[in-house]
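S.,

Sequence below, as promised.
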Amino acid sequence: MKSFAAVLLIAVLLCACSKEEPQAPVRPGVENPAPSTPDGYPEVDFAAGNATEHRTDGADGEIHIILYRKASNRSLPYVCAMSLTEGSDFASIDRQADFARGSSTAEAVLRFSPSKMGAQRRAATVKLTEEGKTLSIVFIKTDTQWSEAEVMLMFDGREFKRVEARYRKEGDKTDWIISREGVERRFMVDKGIPSVSATGSVAEASVYGKAELWPAVGVPCYYSDEFIALNVCAIADGKAEFPHTEYFFRQAGQYATARICDGWLLPVLAIDAKLLDPASNMWSAPARIEPDGSLTVFSPYHHLSPVHIVNGAPLSATWHISLNGAEASLKPQFSGFSNKDVFDFDFTIAAEGRCEGDMSKIVFDRPMHNCNADGLKNVIIECTWGNLQPTIIEIVLRIEHQSHIGAAGR
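The prediction came back faster than expected:
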């Protein structure tokens, strides 16, 4: 398998510093173009994912408005003037949004007061003064009451936290608010599809832009009776940071943090132009210990995984591992990693291994997959990399969760 491993080695090159703008992948024999100072300023527009509808129960509030431009590290700072062309009697907008040097996003705050709307339904239209672009947000006042609080388990990429969730349902749409000290997430579910409200300290991932380069940006949020997964950007210092995932578990059960030492991808994908030692680059994912003793690991290649930013797999992806005494088995299943520039087919994995220490550690010495030596799909899930390394999953920080899900919240 050495030939294809060499191709994968430079198929994905990531920026190691998470707080800087990720750099585009570079393939063999292609040099980065020399940076140049732009003659003018890149075109500015409203980012995808901005709110177009907001329902309110009468309390004053505010919404992030995210602007986007194509930018490189050499892009100059830019001040974008803004105004309201509709709705100024009940809403106000920051007079400007400031793009920092090299930044592709900038933020302004739209503040609104429903008591001044004078009607149940009003629109506020934001205009970029120089560019002429507009964004209209429809505000709808509702008298529907919030449900009683439902306790969920939130996994933020590192640990579990208990949060309170409330909902209100009108027709096909359900508003949700999830909160605890220092955390507030608002989102709406419309016919089963969730969208995040740009309030508090986050916005939906799509506002970041560049989904064509970084597939994680384009992964939609997920909603079910079992769990909710949000793909969001933190809003800090007036700009959107790279998206991260947050999980909220509704189903009762025993949950745990799964520490992953990965032998399926890290042995062949280069990070910042070098391979990472799996044992030195472990990350955490949420897991649930099922009543039959099996283990479900949720979205293993998202969260704080080194390959998260180039992973376009859905947030509903899981690993299901069967456990029988000291035996562990991961039957052929989708890996939870999707990137057409790396695999132009569903990368499928399998493994047989052992369980140690009362299920405190699962070891797969021979992780298998369906990518053959030519980089093509193999019919049988029996391939291994030339530099074979084990997959190890450590089960830590177990926590019991009890929950009651009302029918109206479904």
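The mean pLDDT is 88.

Coffee later?
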